[in-house]
Specification:
alpha/beta; Aspartate Aminotransferase, domain 1; binds pyridoxal-5'-phosphate; seven-stranded mixed sheet; four-stranded antiparallel sheet
Length: 411
């Protein structure tokens, strides 16, 4: 008989995006004349930068020439890409990261999910609430969550760090000792950020408690303000306590191409039960070699092209385009008298649902009265209730139209 991993039975069905899709499908079927604008899902819409396309074409051609054909590549990523990452994402910001501290992958979802493999099951995990759901669900699957409390909407062994207007969307340090801390800044879903001083508190906490910070900076390219760190390693001491996740998905439109990377400095250590220090870099390297055969050569050449002079110009154009949408959303909400957060250093705007409505009720109003789709905040955690996410990843025309509708009809 084969027995299942019963942790999977503790997972709560996520009805968020499927419920949204069902509601939208029903509405459009019943109202075929209405043009619904979708500002819900966090996927990009702009085509890939030309430099990436050219690099992929070239790489495909190489694959057809026997002298240049590539079979299995290094599991950790090709040297040309690891080098480009070190030079452009770290050295240029005065951060000293070595090439063998970079692990190239097929995206940050896999990395933020798979990283749980190298941690003991009895580590105490802290997440923000609301949160990008991957951090929570992968810890449930690997047995760190305990039972789900239906009434509270939380797991018994997970430490939740509420982020809400009352604390300016800045998580407070946990009162108890936690071992693994997930932080994501610029934040999905709230679109808010932490400055260096605020991030420093977390690095100090992690140092004092021998904890690890799992820092997701998938949206760093959208930062527009000067004093906001793009990498946690801009904070002194973070190289001893933090693992960083990056993605080309939103930075360069790679959601369908798939490429990302993890940074694990060799100085980041965990402990055996006997108290022996072990480098997480060494564990992740072992895991990667065992379970992964590397991201595709063609894709890695495309990622390398992101760092070329032309590539940088082209991704900036796309990012500026999305951030202009974010501005249109912010200004529209302001005119409509709706309180909002984020949208300055992130492609997400997190708005406060008007008094008396739940996130889902607001979703229905927006869909039915204004034909605009967003994401109810309660889908990201209990403290997301009363909030709503709009994304800047739509087209400019649709974003303008959506905000016109919200302004003219009011909420
Ligand atoms: N991390 C965060 C915070 C995200 O919002 C997303 C995607 O929406 C990801 C990671 C996943 O990125 P990737 O496309 O590289 O898997």
């Amino acid at each position: 008989m084969s027995y299942i991993n019963e942790n999977f039975l503790e997972l709560q069905e996520s009805y968020l995006f499927s419920t949204i899709a069902k509601k939208v499908a029903k509405y459009t079927e019943e109202n075929p004349d209405k043009k619904v604008i979708k500002l819900g899902i966090g996927d990009v819409t702009r085509p890939l930068p030309k430099s990436c396309i050219e690099a992929m074409h070239k790489a495909v051609d190489e694959m057809g020439i026997s002298e240049e054909f590539k079979g299995y590549g290094p599991e950790q990523g090709y040297e040309f890409l690891r080098k480009a990452i070190v030079e452009n994402d770290y050295k240029s910001r005065g951060i000293d990261i070595a090439e063998d501290e970079i692990f190239v992958s097929d995206g940050a979802k896999c990395d933020t999910g798979n990283i749980v493999d190298i941690f003991a099951k009895d580590n105490v995990v802290a997440i923000t609430d609301p949160v990008y759901p991957v951090y929570l669900d992968t810890n449930v699957m690997s047995g760190r969550s305990g039972k789900f409390n239906l009434q509270q909407g939380t797991y018994e062994n997970i430490v939740y760090l509420p982020v809400m207007a009352e604390n300016d969307f800045k998580p407070e340090l946990p009162k108890q000792k936690v071992d693994m801390i997930y932080l994501c800044f610029p934040n999905n879903p709230t679109g808010t950020v932490l400055n260096k001083e605020e991030l420093k508190k977390w690095v100090e906490y992690a140092k004092e408690n021998h904890s690890i910070i799992l820092y997701d900076s998938a949206y760093e390219a959208f930062i527009t303000e000067d004093d906001i760190p793009h990498s946690i390693y801009e904070v002194e001491g973070a190289k001893d306590v933090a693992i960083e996740f990056r993605s080309f998905s939103k930075t360069a439109g790679f959601t369908g191409v798939r490429c990302g990377y993890v940074v694990i400095p060799k100085t980041v250590k965990g402990y055996t039960k006997e108290g022996k220090e072990i480098s997480y870099n060494q564990l992740w390297n072992r895991r990667t070699c065992t379970k992964f055969n590397g991201a595709s050569y063609i894709v890695q050449r495309a990622a390398e092209a992101v760092y070329s002079e032309e590539g940088q110009k082209q991704i900036k154009e796309n990012i500026d385009y999305y951030m202009e949408n974010a501005k249109i959303i912010r200004e529209g909400l302001e005119e409509a008298g709706i309180t909002y957060y984020g949208g300055v250093n992130a492609p997400y705007v997190w708005l406060k649902v008007p008094e008396g409505k739940t996130s889902w009720e607001f979703f229905d109003t927006l869909l039915q009265d204004m034909n605009v789709v967003g994401t109810p905040g309660s889908g990201f955690g209990p403290h997301g209730e009363g909030y709503f996410r709009l994304t800047a990843f739509g087209t400019k025309e649709n974003t303008i139209k959506a905000m016109e509708r919200i302004k003219s009809k009011g909420c």
